[in-house]
Amino acid sequence: MNRAPSILSASTSLLGICFVIITGLKLANANVRSYADEVTWLAAVLLFTAVVHAYLTIRNGGVRGWQERVADSAFLGGLTALAVAVVIAAISL
């Protein structure tokens, strides 16, 4: 099953949400009161990794199966980290 296009689409959208959260925390000066921005940066790095590897999977025609597995794992990790960041922000603010 070719999941790379779905991973690419969802990861880019969630990466944008990460940047909105980071910017919002910075503008509200709430980034010094919690670890939400650090966890969001972790989510952004993982989602960027998912974007790159999903793109490479599409570009290579799915020949390298490990790239799709990396994209899938990074996407799930980024999604989890983003959810944790939102919970941290909600509790601390």
Q: Can you tell me the number of structural domains?
A: 1
Radius of gyration, Cα only, in angstroms? 14 Å
Strand content: under 5%
Shape: elongated
Mean residue pLDDT:
92
Spans where pLDDT lies below 50 across 5 or more residues: none
Structural class: mainly alpha
Task: State the distance separating the first and last CA atoms.
Answer: 42 Å
Count the DSSP helices: 3
Helix content: over 70%
> What string gives the helices and strands in order?
HHH
Q: Report the major sheet.
A: none
Describe the structure.
The chain is an all-alpha fold and about 90 residues long. The relative contact order is 0.22. It has one domain (about 5-90). About 80% of the residues lie in helices and about 0% in strands. The model has no long low-confidence stretch (mean pLDDT about 90). The N and C termini lie far apart (about 40 Å). The chain is built from three helices and no strands. Helix 1 runs antiparallel to helix 2, helix 1 packs parallel to helix 3 (about 65-90) and helix 2 (about 35-60) packs antiparallel against helix 3. It has helices spanning about 5-25, 35-60, 65-90.
